[in-house]
Amino acid sequence: xxxxxxxxxxxxxxxxxxxxxxxxxxxxxxxxxxxxxxxxxxxxxxxxxxxxxxxxxxxxxxxxxxxxxxxxxxxxxxxxxxxxxxxxxxxxxxxxxxxxxxxxxxxxxxxxxxxxxxxxxxxxxxxxxxxxxxxxx
Length: 137
Known about the structure:
Blueprint: E1 2-8, E2 14-19, H1 22-30, E3 44-46, H2 60-82, E4 84-87, H3 90-98, E5 107-109, H4 113-121
Parallel strand pairs: 4-5
Antiparallel strand pairs: 1-2, 1-3
C-alpha cells in the first residue's frame, strides 16, 4: 500500500488517498474514480509527500545509540574510579567542600530535586549523571 497526499484543484481541499501502488493511482485517476470528498470534483492532484523508507538495522541512529551507551559506560567507570562516592550525604558533603569544612575533591552520590535546588541556590555546581549512582556492594 502507498499513501498519497491529494488535493482538489477546484476547492483546494486536501486529503489522503491509499492505493496499491503508483500504477493503481494513475489508473484510478484516468478512469475518474478518485474524487474530492468535499466537492465531488474529479480534478485531483498529488501533493508533496515524504517517502516512507524502512530503517535498516545497522542505521546511523542505531550506531549512534550504541556509541552513546558505550560513552556512558566509560564515563561511569571514570567517575567510579576518580570521584569519591558519598551516597545520600551528597548535599551535606558538597556544602562542606564549598565552605572549606572538608577537603576539596570530586564527589558523587544521591540528592533529591529539593536538595539539588538548594545546592544551586548556594552556587554549588551539580550535574545529573546519566546512570544510577547507588552502590549495591
